[in-house]
Each structure stands twice: as structure tokens, then as C-alpha cells.
Amino acid sequence: MFRPFRSEVEHAVESALQTLALPTDDLGVETPPEDVPATLASSVAFRLARSAKDSPPRVADDIAAAIDLEPDSQTYEYIDHVDTRGPYINFHVNDAYYMDTLTAAQDPEYGHLPNTGQSVVVEHTSANPTGPVHVGRGRNTIFGDAVARLLEYNGDTVDRHYYLNDAGRQVGVFTWAYEKFDADSLPDPERDRPDYDLVRYYRRGNEFLENADADAVESAEDEIASIINGLEAGNTETYERVQTVVDQVIDGMQQSFDRLSAIFDEFIKETRFIQNGDADAVVERLKSADCAVYEDDAWQIDLSAYDIEKNLVFLRSDGTTLYTTRDLAHHEWKFDNYDASVTILGEDHKLQAEQLDATLQILGNDTDQLRQPFYSWVNLPEGGMSTRKGTGVDLDDLLDEAIARAREEVHDRLGSRVRDDSLSSDDIDRIARQVGVGAVRYDIVSKQPTKGITFEWDRALDFEAQSAPYIQYVHARCCGIETEVNSNTDLDIDALTSDSIPDITMLRTDAERALLQEIARFPAVVESAAADLEPHVIATFARSFAEQFNTFYRECSVLNAESEIMTAARVSLVRAARHTVANALDIVGVEAPQSM
């Protein structure tokens, strides 16, 4: 209900300013200072004091007096009263605001906004298909998946794409090595999965190219070049050779994505834009551009007019295109098929992103529909995990470690669980997976993407601190309360639908009202976070919401309330809280356990 209340406040301020013949270009509606017990405030008096030739507090009083809340005037459904404190005009909500919030949040889909009618493609991860996903690239997956989830909650229709580099030199080396070396000559794979199996060939191929004698390397480079040129020429046999390697690796990588519950709707291969002629068409259009130059045996675009010093190379002297050339065709395809495009990129790709954006404009595209948020890297604490020489830390290693540590924590906490029912070994495995993977995802999403992360186990898996398990525990606690009420009272919780919940006047304590205020804010938090592509805002909300719920839990007994009707009211509030925290966790890709 926060969103319609905010609209009412904006209308009330604007109408009052019009009555006073004051400018309405900036209404100053914002969250009030912490010591002000209002839901929203307007600081517009600050801005208007000079033009009104009066002090901000007096201007605020005049504006507040001009707001007409009489029933026969403009109807405000949720504004109870208006007052001022200093320069702030403060807006307070009525019982209808709380009642409609409690009613709306009985819906398990609470927090989903109405359909915007906008289609969005979110491209993320897009790591070269040469082996398992590493921890650093895993941040792209986790952040990108959270952005896609957030946009879906915002009401957009979202497709998640992985743009697959299956035409570059690395893939050429990989294909050549896979065909050249015998499996028996390679070390055992680190896991029984195709990506771990095939990466051995890629590593051996690179070792060969670095250490073999000059004639052998020259011969190998000729074979690699023939693979790359075969792809450029659209040779079917070459394409099939490459896909034999690429498809197996992607099948293996998909298992890592599945562990993270990261979904891809489609893997878009860059060879698609070679085979259908789009890349060649881009080349011809770029050659005819005024800023096209042929320098250093390559066709380039001079981007100095866009304050970019480095030219974009789009065609080599041998007639082969580059990754960026194909990506230009790829982005034009996205522009043709979606209303908006989001590409999640590592901070080391900022220059390429700027070059891409500028060149797309040169090609005549409106790049306002393109957004390219960046993320920084993930570091592990010294000694926190082993790093295999030359391979880094695989995402699977991090997840295994997280689940193992979560399992230990679950065992240690068995005596203080929310419920007194027994847990089977399967239950413990499930909770360990939910908590362990959730800890990794939350710890990564909760940070602003442009800030580097040092992953710390003790913080990420702390059930008592501001971490995923702390928030997940709130959801489990809500489930436990509802189970206890069902088992120990005559109330039929399932019969407490949005049409039969008790009157909101039953919920009068500060803890109850504060929790309802947070529930009411959730859809607006989704809206704001989606506008800025900031899933960490949802993570922050979930953490503060968990704290607010725990205050309610300590101060307001549900099962031992003074009356059955009070128990019914509070269990309705618990259910609303459960839906809110479950969906906040869902946006950041963290499971909400029913027991812990």
C-alpha cells in the first residue's frame, strides 16, 4: 500500500502548492527523519523558502494548512493526518492502510508488480566455454540472475541469455587440442563432469603452444587458424567439430548453474551471426562509415568523437571478424526482438562496453534501451580455500565448502531449533544445501556490484548476524509458528483468507505496526531497486525486515495471545511476513526453508 499512499502524498503536496501559487516541479517527497513518526514527509519547504520569502518551517505550516483532507473534498484513502516538524510536512497513515497491507500480503505472490508490457533480455555470465565456472565469474551469474529475477518481480517479461563464444581463438585452440591429445595422456579430471573432463585438453593445448618447439607450434597454429577460418566461412564440418567440444562443456557448466538455481532460457551462439550473414552485414555498414579507417592491417572505427581514445577493430587483414563484430550483430538482434537489453559485465570490460555502445550508435541504433551494469571481483580469504595451480578456485569448490560448513552449523544447532520435530539425514542435507548455497548467493548479492568482495565464511554463515541464514531463519520461524497454531489451537489457518482475517484494530502495538509498515514498503522497494538494477537493495531490505520481525516475535506472542481473535490476527501478520521475506529472498536467489 506504500505505492498508492506515496501517490496520494504527491497529489496532496502538488494540490496545496497550486493553491498557494507555488511551483510544483519538485515535491520533495521522501522518507522522514528517523525521529519523525510519519510514513512519508515532504521537504519542499526547504526549496521554496527563498521564493516565498519566509522561513522553511513557516512555509511548511502554510503548505500543510492548504492540504484539504475533508471527506467532501479530494478523497485520500490512506492519509490519516498531516502535521509539521520544522521544515518537514509529515504524512501519517490510517487503519485502512494497515488493513489493506495485511490483506494484500496474504497472497503468496505479494511483491510482484503489475505487468509493464515491456520485454527485457538479460545477458549474463557468458564465460568462454573452456572449462568449469570460476568463483570470479560466478559473481556475474549470481548478480545477473538476481537482476533478472528483480525485473520479473517488477512486471517485465524477462528472457535470460548466455552469449556463447564459440568462434574465437580460445575455442579454436580447444577444438584442436581435443582432437590432438589422447585422454590417457592427461591427468585425471577433478570431477566426473564433462567440463572438468574437457578442460584437461584445453590446458594441455596451451602448455603445448607455450613449450613445444617452433616447428610444432607453427604447425599447430596453422591447424587452429584453419578451424577459425572454417567457422568464418560457414563450413558445416568445422562447425560440427567445434560444437562437439562446446556443447559438452556447456552441459557440464549447466550443472554448476543448476546448483545456484540460476536459469538460462537460451544459449545464444555467436556463430549464429556468422552463419546468417549478420556479422558480414555489420562489417559492410561499418566500412562505409565516415569514421572507418584502415590501419595496422585491420579495419577500425575511430571513436575519438565519442571521447574514446582506442579504436574499435572490427575486421582483421585476413578477412576474419572479431568477437566485438559478432556482438554488434548480436545486440542489433536483441534490439529488434526486445524492448530493453541488460548485459552484466566485469569491470575489466568497461572499455569494450563503451566502444560497443558508441559503435552501435554509429550503426544507427538507439542505445538508450541498452544498460550495461558492471561488477567487481570476488576474493577468498588467504588460506580459506586451496587454489589449484593454474586453475584458480572453481565455483563448485566454493559451493561444496559452503554446504559442508552449513551442515556442521545445522548439527550444532539441532538443540535450539524452532520446532521440536526430528530431522532426518535427508532434511539435514536439504537444509545444509539451502543454507550453504543461500549464504554464497546472499553474501555476493548484498554488496554493491562495483565493490570488491572478500568472502568470509564466519560472516556469511552466521545465523545470528546479518546474513542469509539469519533471514532464512525468520522464514522457518514463521512456518513454525503457523504449524504450532494449527496443532495447538482450534483455529483453521487455511480458512484465514484475505476475506476473513480479523480487523486491523487488533494489531495496535508498536512492534505490530512497525512490521506492517515494512510489509507495506516491499512492493515500492522492488520498484525502486528494479529501476536502478540494484538487487542489493532487496538484500538490505530483507535483512532489516528480519530484524523487525524478530522484534515482533520477542514482544508479541502468537500462540499465547490473550484471545483467539488476537491469535488469528497475529498469525495473519505472520503469514504476511512469511510471504514478504520469502519473496525478498527469492529475488536474490536464496531459498526460504520451511525448517532449520
From TrEMBL:
Q: Which Pfam families match?
A: Arg_tRNA_synt_N, DALR_1, tRNA-synt_1d
Subcellular location per the Swiss-Prot or TrEMBL entry:
Cytoplasm
For this UniProt record, the keywords arranged alphabetically read as follows: Aminoacyl-tRNA synthetase, ATP-binding, Cytoplasm, Ligase, Nucleotide-binding, Protein biosynthesis
Tell me which species this is from.
Haloquadratum walsbyi (strain DSM 16854 / JCM 12705 / C23)
Q: Which reaction does it catalyse?
A: tRNA(Arg) + L-arginine + ATP = L-arginyl-tRNA(Arg) + AMP + diphosphate
Ranges for domain Arginyl tRNA synthetase N-terminal:
7-93
- Specify the DALR anticodon binding domain's residue ranges: 471-596
Q: Name one GO biological process term.
A: arginyl-tRNA aminoacylation
Give the family from UniProt.
Belongs to the class-I aminoacyl-tRNA synthetase family.
A single GO cellular-component term from the record reads: cytoplasm
Gene name of the record:
argS
Known EC number(s)? 6.1.1.19
Protein name per UniProt = Arginine--tRNA ligase
The UniProt entry annotates the motif 'HIGH' region at: 127-137
Major site of localization recorded for this protein: cytoplasm
Matching SMART domains: Arg_tRNA_synt_N (SM01016), DALR_1 (SM00836)
SUPFAM superfamilies under this entry? Anticodon-binding domain of a subclass of class I aminoacyl-tRNA synthetases, Arginyl-tRNA synthetase (ArgRS), N-terminal 'additional' domain, Nucleotidylyl transferase
- Molecular functions (GO terms): arginine-tRNA ligase activity; ATP binding
Out of the domains of life, which is the source?
Archaea
